[in-house]
Amino acid sequence: MDTKTISWCPTVSADMRTAALRWYQMSNEVMSQAFKIGQPLMDAYIQGLSKAIPELKKVARKSCEIPETECPPSCVCELEWEACEGETVTGVMDIRNTGQQNANFTLRASTFRSSGDDSGKSPQLTPNNFVLAPGEMKTVTVAVQASDAFDSNEIYESEVTVAGRYEQCVCLRLRTRRKNVPHCHINHGEIPTRLVAHHWYDHFQCEELCFQPVGRMVQPEQEEPTPVRPIGTAPPSKSKQKG
């Protein structure tokens, strides 16, 4: 091998190493840019997948669950009144037999209570016992009398139990209030008077009654005025009468 070949080989090897290093750097830059561009897409994909997995679990769980239904509430409805002492309020309940056989209905009511205090009074139910054929309906009247057993400005609650094939109830609520009676207070004594100006040039006032007296009114006796003698005159002499 001549000297030219020996001198050329190291030069070519250095260029190849430089080119390989540049290619490696360019590859890293390309991969880095591709990763930066693809990272948001990857994050969105992972986020969407994390949200979809619970929904997929719910769908799979529902498809395996046995369907269930809820029971209707025992309290069918509520009747509410406002009343003051001595007042009687009423309401109605329509009961229909939707079954296929005759049914015997019995109604009973609890006493009204307010914050644990028992009034001892219960509503009146008319009628409270009857039989209904299939499709037949009966109207029951509920009457509540707000007696002195109820405190004013309180809320009392009671329940009406309707027992047919099973028991249902109607909730009752009574709001008591004070009896609103218009009230007026009158002060009545001596007849009031007022002062009025007589004339502007007289510079004095007159006093007169504001109202006319009822019936005959006795005026108090007034003393006669003492006559005033003119200035510079002697007082009148009193002559003695001889017997």
Structural write-up:
With 243 residues, the protein is of the alpha+beta class. Among the domains are: 1-64; 75-177, Immunoglobulins (Immunoglobulin-like, Sandwich), CATH 2.60.40. The protein has one helix and twelve strands. The strands form four sheets. A five-stranded mixed sheet has the order 1-10-9-3-7, with no helix packed on it. A three-stranded antiparallel sheet has the order 2-8-6, with no helix packed on it. The longest helix has 62 residues, at 3-64. The radius of gyration is 54 Å and the shape is flat. Residues 1-10 have low confidence and may be disordered.
Provide a brief overview of the structure.
By secondary structure, the protein is α+β, with helices and mostly antiparallel strands. It has one helix and twelve strands; from the N terminus they run αββββββββββββ.
